[in-house]
């Protein structure tokens, strides 16, 4: 099982709305994540907008490709893109650059 962690930055003026959106993620989005291999997926948000994402998956590239192939993900990413800083035209899911794991207590 791969453990994947990534960072993004939510715009300060959109923090409350971002929290609200994630308190009510679309059921079809949740189903797509589960079906494409995203397990134990969590998002942590700091008050300055730093977003830390964590998930476990058998194959991150395959999990990303699986979501890329869904219509619901395209709709979700289009709605979420304005919440983020520094995407340089990329969708939020494409801007997720996994951090290198340097320690894990098994």
TrEMBL record:
Keywords: Isomerase. Transmembrane segments: none annotated. InterPro entries: Dimeric_a/b-barrel (IPR011008), Rham/fucose_mutarotase (IPR008000). Gene3D superfamilies: 3.30.70.100. Pfam families: rhaM. Its EC number is 5.1.3.32. PANTHER family: L-RHAMNOSE MUTAROTASE. This is L-rhamnose mutarotase.
């Amino acid at each position: 099982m791969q453990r994947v962690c990534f960072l993004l930055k939510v715009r300060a003026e959109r923090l409350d709305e971002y929290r609200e959106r994630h308190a009510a993620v679309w059921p079809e989005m949740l189903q797509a994540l589960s079906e494409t291999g995203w397990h134990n997926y969590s998002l942590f948000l700091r008050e300055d907008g730093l977003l830390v994402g964590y998930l476990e998956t058998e194959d991150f590239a395959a999990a990303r490709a699986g979501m890329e192939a869904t219509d619901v993900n395209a709709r979700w990413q289009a709605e979420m893109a304005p919440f983020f800083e520094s995407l340089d035209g990329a969708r939020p899911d494409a801007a997720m650059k996994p951090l290198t794991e340097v320690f894990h207590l098994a």
